Amino acid sequence: METINDLPLHKRLGIKEGFEVKLINEPEYYLNLLNGVAAKIYFHKQLKSAVDLIHLFTSSRKELSIEFPFLKDYIKNDGMFCVSWPKNSPNFVCDLDEETVREIGKKNGLVYCLSFSIDNYWTAVNFTKSAGD
What we know:
Elements (H helix, E strand, L loop, with lengths): L8 H5 L6 E5 L17 E2 L7 E7 L3 H11 L3 E12 L11 H10 L2 E8 L4 E8 L4
Parallel strand pairs: 1-2, 1-3, 3-4
Antiparallel strand pairs: 4-6, 5-6
């Protein structure tokens, strides 16, 4: 049976052609993970208006707690906020786990949608706005 992690990354993220995306702290190889879909997506350098997807990479609970309230306001009503943090590894210092990330998302009024793996080094949680927003 196919799992979410068997799908290409752009499908796990819910990215479609024409999406507006803001990446923050992404690994330098990230666009290669999107299997050619990156050419059909508009990537914002700055957040001046709402986007379809914000994808934040962080290893710090403090950074996530500070950035989340600001960034969530730049998600379109039907958009997504994806938070990624390093998987357990001696190469990364990280004070985040899925429970902590979900807790911060809920505290900031977003709804947990999905957990999945980005690659061998990063894991992720996707959030959406509630139906009433």
